[in-house]
Structure formats: structure tokens, C-alpha cells
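Feature request, filed as a ticket because there's no other form

It would be nice if the structure record came with a short human-readable summary line next to the C-alpha cells. Right now we just get the raw output. Example of a typical job, pasted below so the devs can see what we mean:
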Amino acid sequence: MAHFIACKKTTDDVHVARLYFREIYCLHGLPMSIVSNWDRHFVGHVWRSLWRLANTKLDFGSSYHPQTDGQTELVNRTLGDMLRVAIDGNLKSWDQRLYQVEFSYNRSWKRSTGFSSFTVIYGYNPRAPIDLVLLIGRKIHDKVEDLITTFQNIHEEARRNLKRPQANTNSIQTRRHDLWSSILETLFGVF
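Raw output as currently delivered:
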């Protein structure tokens, strides 16, 4: 399961550790091992001391052992592709779309397992926001109906953005864009 957490470049090691415990630990508990890159946050004294106390093994990827870092690189590339589709040029909104991209990523089928991350962890794929459309016409609270309308508007805007011709893209970028468009369509029922 992947988790995408927005933070600033100036975030210090203690804040990274707090983010980990607030966003990851509460969902999954303490890991047996963590594979990470050589970013200063993950090689610093605070991070190493914390995981030594938790009896968690830290593995660092290197150019000589790409298998330790290959999955992370693939997820990062996929995250970038999905965010580009989700924000459509509005670079300041990436952090506001991150939760949607995380949900879509974890709900999408993975070639390596043949299942989505949600299915592997929980045994099923959770309903997507598009499932809320089925509630229209029923007697529901006004604020809930506003939320549903907001989701519909976001999906409608994303659909329009995806249908616009992409200028100056090569065939690989176009194929990735088409792939993520179809995944988002499958997950959210729009586009």
C-alpha cells in the first residue's frame, strides 16, 4: 500500500518522524524493515535512532542494488504521472489532489500481485466517490448533497482536461496519459 504525504523541502527530521507516526503507523503499526533512499531525513541520527529503538531494519537503495529502490522509483514515476493528470497544469493544487491520487493508486490493479493494494490488505476494493452519485434523488442532508456535487464537478473538470489534446507530447507520455485516464475512469466511473 502506498501513502503519499505532502511536506515541505524545509521539513526537519523530527517532523518527518511525526508525519510517519501520524499518517502510517496508525494504519499499519511498526514495520519490520523500511526501504528508503539516501535522503538526509532517512540517514540522520533522529531517524536511525528511532528505528533502532523500534527494532526496525533500515535498508538503503543504491545504484549497485537497484532491486532495493526499483519499486520506489516506479511508484514515484507513477505518482508523477497521476498528479499531472489530476492537476492539469494547476501546479499549486497538487497537495489538494494528493489524497485522490493515493486512493486511485491503491485501488488500481498491480501487475506484480494481480490485485489492488486495497484488495491485498483489506480483501476488497473500497467504493469510489462516483458511488455517491447513486445517492442523488434520495433524501439526504444538504451538505452531503453539496459534497456529492463537488465530486461530480471535479470529475467533470478532470474529464474535460483529459479529453483536451496534449500538445508537444511524445508517444510514451501519451500512452501513460491514456493509461491513467482509463484507470481513473475505471475507478471513479468518469472521464
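Something like this underneath would help us a lot:
The chain has a mean pLDDT of 76.
The longest strand covers residues 33-36.
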